[in-house]
Amino acid sequence: MNIDYSQFLNMMPEVSLCALLVIIFVADFITARKPGDAPRKWFNPLVCILMTAHLLLNMSPVESATAFGGMYYTMPAIGTIKTILAFGTLIVLIQSREWMSRPDTSFKEGEFYLLVISTLLGMNMMVSANHFLLFFLGLEMASVPMACLVALDKYRHNSAEAGAKFILTATFSSGVMLYGISLLYAAAGTFYFDDMITKMTMSPLTIAGLVFFFSGLGFKISLVPFHFWTADTYQGAPTTVTGYLSVVSKGAAAFTLCAILMKVFAPMVEAWQIMLMIVTVLSITVANLFAIRQSDLKRFMAFSSISQAGYIVLAILGNNAMSAAALSYYVLIYVVANMAVFTVISAVEEHNDGKVCIDDYNGLYKTNPKLAFLMTLALFSLGGIPPFAGMFSKFFVFMAAVKGASVDTAMGAWQYAVVFIALVNTVISLYYYLIIVKAMYIKHNDNPLPTFTSNVSTKLALALCTTGVIAFGVVSGVFEWIL
Questions:
Q1: How large is the C-alpha radius of gyration of the chain?
Q2: What is the pTM of this model?
Q3: DSSP 3-state percent helix, strand, coil across the chain (nearest 5)
């Protein structure tokens, strides 16, 4: 069988990630170290430089192309989301240096970077899939290394328990999704997205396949009612991994859901719009109500991420050209804002014996005013306060959701109702984000967290995130570039 190797030129993001994996594996193997050995201070900068090279190499707009008989597909929108995912991963790698410098985790440094990049490779394959088998392969390539990342810090913070919960629920959701895909194959006789769209009808078989498929992918995005694993996993996983799980993994799954619903299930648009409206309202409302009751900051951010997932999929509801652009822009803003919060949480945790309770942040501005200020900016962005980027990302999501909807039709009226509920929940989310701000600036603490100095990598990660929170909101060209 003759293979046209020129097809790999259409897969440059995946090819460069494979090259990164080989280089990092060889470097880690040659300079392998054991517990107790001196840390390799050069290893994290090397990985970050390689990831930056990968990001710059693949930032230029790509032309639409296919590979391997049409199973793999790329286009400018897909290239954009891959760039956003790579940027989020770069921030995670930069921020991880302080955690990796701990004596009990530094010997796992090579494993951590290999697992992170392997996960990113699976996400890239998933978003470029034009065939359900390639989609499922990419999904599992991302999920299995992610379970290892969650359990990487197994001797602290219930990481092993979190990993076990994650892999068990991931396995169950994958089985449900695979069953849904098998029903779709039975109805259409093909796995190719382009061929399935011509054979989709509102039959009981295809509706069942849609429900099972959506349920499986809803787990990856942690939408209600598929969210029960999220709080325990986020709390038990290492903070760096929690940040990666909450932004990069969620963004890839949401974009894939958008592409498949609008492409494969276009003839069934009313069916999946009804499902989206239900899970969007539930996700935003239930997560907001539970977030208010949390005392652990990582569990708090878990419910915040569930609420943000509701806003992300709200963009898909419009089923128009603006939906993918609004979703990508929202993910970009979510990456910088959420990673800023998790970078601060990680810095405080590493310098204060693992303190992650909200009450521990009482009076933080007195001892660490810069961290408190940057945390506040990120929380304001997540809450949608102008002029920060989060306000614009929510605005574009709302616009995408109602664009083309008509109040004269029942479906259009329901879309407007869902957007109104999302707007009301934005006020609720602002309230619980301000709880943390209140703790840092208003609440008194007789024993506040001591003053400490973060390392260069933490400062760099916070600088990138804060710049994004401010700049992406005032530079309209960012959204135009995505669109």
A1: 22
A2: 0.91
A3: 75, 0, 20
10 Å Cβ neighbour count for 295? 11
Residue 482 has pLDDT above 60, yes or no: no
- Distance, in Å, from the CA atom of 240 to the CA atom of 298, rounded to the nearest integer, reads 11
pLDDT tens string 342-393: 999 988 888 877 778 888 888 888 888 888 899 999 998 888 888 888 888 8
What band does 475 get if pLDDT is binned at 50, 70 and 90? Answer: low
Confidence of residue 18 (pLDDT cuts 50, 70, 90): very high
What amino acid is encoded at 135 in this protein?
Answer: F
Cα diameter, the chain: 74
Tokens 């921030």 -> residue: 91
Are 255 and 127 contacting, i.e. CB atoms less than 8 angstroms apart? yes
In DSSP terms, which residues pair with 66 in a beta bridge?
A: 73
What three-state secondary structure class fits 67?
A: strand
CA distances from 15 to 22, 37, 93, 127 (A): 11, 33, 20, 15
The beta strand positions in 383-431, using DSSP E, are none
pLDDT score of 16: 92
Say yes or no to pLDDT of 2 above 80: no
Comparing CA positions, the residue from 361, 464, 349 lying closest to residue 99 is: 349
How far is CA 156 from each of CA 150, 162, 301, 358, 373, rounded to the nearest angstrom?
11, 11, 19, 20, 29
CA distance 327 to 475: 17
